[in-house]
Amino acid sequence: MKKDQNCGYCMRGELLDAFGIYICDLRVSSLILFKEQSHPGRCIVAYKEHVSELVDISEEGRAAFMEDVAQASKAIHAAFGPQKVNYGAYGDTGCHLHMHLVPKYMDEFEWGDVFAMNPQRTYLEEKQYEEMIEKIKANL
Fold this sequence. Notes:
Elements: H1 8-11, H2 13-17, E1 20-25, E2 29-34, E3 43-47, H3 59-80, E4 84-88, E5 98-104, H4 126-138
Antiparallel strand pairs: 1-2, 2-3, 3-5, 4-5
Helix pairs in contact: 3-4
């Protein structure tokens, strides 16, 4: 399996700790809680292998990745009750296939607009992150 020594999704540890908290492995991906929680329940689904694009994996891999995204999204819906989940697939700088799952709430500052990648508004205490992770795990 391809890994990049400079990639937080591949190596975890300090690199991942800078922006996320590992939750668990899914079929072909890892589920990560995004530390900035302006959108309660925001997560990242990161493909386990270090590839850049959806076209870099097999048809079966793409299908399994999208199933992982759907499984994580269902858990977010069940745990936090958003009106919508936005999906963002970026990677201009990190170049590791991943998708942001951003719960949207009608009374939220960005409802009806594109979500900010990192608004730097809401960080939680360790216990609050743990509680969110347990809610997500309970609904996977």
